[in-house]
Amino acid sequence: MELERFVCNKKGLTLAELMVTTFILSVVVLAAMGSYRYISTSSMLSKSRTLASNLEQEQIEKLKNITYYSLLVTTSAYSDTRFYPPLSYDTGNYPAQTIVEGGVSFTRGTRIDFAYKNGSQISTAPWTTDDTALKQITTYVIWNENNVWKYVSMQNLIANPAASELSATASGQVTDTGGVAIAGALVQILDNPNWFAYTDTGGNYQFSVSPGSYTVQASSTGYYPSTTNGYQTFTSGVTTPINFALGAVASGTVSGMVYSDDHLVISQVVASTDTGGGSEYIELYNPTTAAINIGYNTATYWSPAGKYFFAYDHNNSGTLLWLTLISTYVPANSYYLIANTTTVNAGGIRVTADAVYNNSFLSLAPSHVMDLGDAGGIAMYNWPGGTTVDRVGWTKNSSGHGSPGSATESFGIGSGNGASAGINAGEQFIRSSRPGGYSTGQGRAYDSDDNNKDFLDLNPITASPHNTSTSELPVSGTPATGATVNMNDILSNIATCTDTTVSSGQRVCSYSLIAATGTWTMDITLNGLAAQVQNVVMQASVSTTVPNGSTVPTWTSVGMSSTTLLRSTTDFAIVTGYIYNGTGGALPSIKVSDGNGHSTQSSSTGFFSLLTSTGAIQMTANPNDGTMNKMYVSQSHDVETFLAGTLYDNRNFTLSYGAIIRGYFQTSSNTALPHRTAIAKKNGLEVAEAASDNTGYFYLANLATGTYAVEASVDPLESVVPSSMTVVINSTGTSTTVSTFTIISGIADIQGQVTVSGNAIKTGVLVLATTTTLTSSALPPAITTSGGGSCNPCYYAGSSNASGFYDLQVRNSAVPYKVYGWYTSFSLDVPSTTVRGPYSVTVNSAGQVGTQPLSW
Fold it and tell me: Are the C-beta atoms of 357 and 324 separated by less than 8 Å?
């Protein structure tokens, strides 16, 4: 019986019970797995952020161990658009690093900026500004998490320990010579452009400076600048009053009209020279400075460079003119005669045609394509592409006989007031040479895109037809709407040519601007065309038209004063841009030169426009050629190849104040030393710094006149000869070359990786190098130095990074260094520190790298 009971109990669960039990266990297991996945994912996310934070803090600490002068400001940055707003970090001095940590690939970017206190906030300044005595370090650590880009950032500041506080004050008022306050005037210290202020509505200003002696200047648009006579002394805790009275710049008005001559025009149309059905012709005129191709290959095939013509009737139905060419080009400033006969008799002379059309399918002989006594028109197109070059249409004032749209610009000739019978025998339509009329000797070029305004209806024929043998200079063209007009005086702004209507009813383009008294140059540009007018003499309160009899060039024709022509720029390129100072303010009256005899000056807005030579050109602002503004340095762009007739804009310049001190860094073996820092001090205060380039040269810019001590910023344990150089600058705008700094005992490096059981130690290991043997290596020694470069022995210590690498910068030494490492691990909560070393490493020359791994 007991056995049966046992067996019964042994059977246990039925099949249904077993299935239920299995289901319950599955739910529990799945829930546990889901929880594990969540816990695991959360742990990974927390781990990634923690590692990223450690990496950015490590970079901050590393950079803060660099001396202020050796911490290089970012001048070239990468914009990481994976984030909004984009992250910006260094690509030159401190390029981004890729670090694999904990199975995650991180990118670490760094940025160094000049910084300054702006109220209660810290703001950054462009790298082109003077040293602000404060630098901001920004690090970014970027990684991808679940296909989402993430980053953390950290910022810190490092100050210049040699900088002085701004404990002195400059204050005063700026007025005109009549005592009226000038609001918005700039008052600045020329020795340091970071010290400035703008006057308020009462002309008052105030700003802080460091104690010392400086030159102060006040300036405002429309006034001549005023500079203090010699240095002004500022004392800590004292307000120094300095007032200015600025003289207004006298001015006059300059005005004129601008035309564009950039395309071939139809200059004359005659349907029949006499009532007997005589010659029919079309006359063209080339107002540009280059010959224009008119030709094609055969009578039935157009060449890629050719032009083709359609004659339209009153129904806008076109007939293609097949030409037999006698001349294939229209010379510059010359005419071209297309006729249905080889010789044309009209206007009392006999003229040979340059091209003949003879459409054999027409019943008339010679061929006529223009209907007498009816509306019609002629259109000229470019091949290939079919773009319109010019069109002229005429009307007949009867139902259904208006001017054809395909051959008409705006209104046809005779619209509403003449030519009511279309075009007739013995009648000619001739283009005006200027608004409202034409004269012999003036090219027939006026083209306002309105046939009724541009052409004269003459009956009988009085103006002779011209062919390529006749040349006349244009005195007008197409009104150059939108052309920019720039005077290189210190007062005027850019003017724009706008449409106006003259008394005769024609459209012209005119401009007017206020310019300072003196002799200036005017540049006018539009769509790659340009003209320059020199020797523009401005007198106070006098209205002057340009060009005139005294300008270069003078007027295009006697009686055509105030007319400037923009023609094909075969000899020049056009370069425009702005000139700024270090704080982004406009610099007027700064010369810009191409080095080949072409120059201009910036306007009151800093804008310049220069017609320059073509080919390889180096543009220079404020060149040192006797016309240099001694307050600012010269700046040149890289050599650039300019093409004729092409506009090159945004060629901007930023000019620093003062002179330049140029020097050189080298090793004791006469090898160039890049990335070493030199500083200039004036009256004991640091006023400029610069790092040597790859050739070893450094350039200390933005220096005013005075006496400077130029020093090398080196490690306290480095030796440099000479220790300091005295430089006297007598005039700004010049370059002074000083002697060479030789680093006799420079910096070397000891590098390596720390590992435990063959794996990198990621928690940090203390590494120390010294030229002596430690008496006890169980713990790091208590290190004391007397300061400066007199430590004996010297100790260099650092910590390995998250990848297990360390880098100690040490003084090169003929005596080998002893390298030690201290690694702390934990057993539960109990720390244990073990040491490795000493290992002997020799680095006996500057720049040498010694390697020593440390393993546990």
Answer: yes
- Give pLDDT tens digits for 188-245: 888 775 677 888 889 999 888 878 888 899 988 778 889 998 789 998 789 999 999 9
Distance CA 185, CA 220 (A): 5
- Structure confidence at residue 301 as a pLDDT band (50, 70, 90): very low
Q: Which CATH number fits domain 168-248: 3.40.390.10, 1.10.3630.10, 2.60.40.1120, 3.30.420.40?
A: 2.60.40.1120
221-249 b/e (C-beta count within 10 Å ≥ 16 → b): bebebbeeeeebebeeeeebebebbbeeb
At the fourth CATH level, which superfamily is domain 478-654?
Carboxypeptidase-like, regulatory domain (2.60.40.1120)
Distance CA 234, CA 212 (A): 5
pLDDT of residue 303: 44
Q: How far is CA 632 from CA 191, 193, 214, 697, 731, in A?
A: 11, 11, 16, 21, 11
- Using a 10 angstrom Cβ sphere, with 0-12 exposed, 13-18 middle and 19 or more buried, the burial of residue 142 is buried
Q: What is the DSSP letter of 280?
A: -
CA 46 and chain centroid, separation: 44
472, pLDDT greater than 60 = yes
What mean pLDDT, rounded, does the chain reach?
81
| Residue 834 identity | T
Does residue 558 surpass a pLDDT of 60?
no
Fold of 747-855: Immunoglobulin-like (2.60.40)
What is the value of pTM for the model shown? 0.53
CATH superfamily of 263-474: Lamin Tail domain (2.60.40.1260)
- Do 263-474 and 747-855 agree at the fold level? yes
How far lies 101's CA from each of 98, 167, 556, in Å?
10, 48, 76
Give the integer Cα–Cα distance in Å for 144 and 149.
4
Q: What's the whole-number mean pLDDT along residues 656-666? A: 79
Q: Can you tell me the distance from the alpha carbon of 141 to that of 153, in angstroms, rounded to the nearest whole number?
A: 6
- Here the tokens at position 503 are 């008394």
Averaged pLDDT for residues 329-348: 93
The correct answer on CATH 2.60.40.10 for the domain covering 659-745 is yes
Structure confidence by residue, pLDDT tens digits, 406-441:
999 999 998 755 446 789 889 999 999 999 888 989
Residue 31 has pLDDT above 70, yes or no: no
3-class SS at 341?
coil
Q: Strand 455-458's sheet: what is its strand order?
A: 323-325, 355-357, 335-339, 281-285, 265-270, 428-431, 455-458
**pLDDT exceeds 90 at position 484:** no
Q: How far is CA 575 from CA 406, 481, 600, 788, in A?
A: 38, 20, 10, 54
Domain boundaries, the chain: 20-159, 168-248, 263-474, 478-654, 659-745, 747-855
Q: What tokens does 20 get?
A: 């239920």
pLDDT at 57: 83
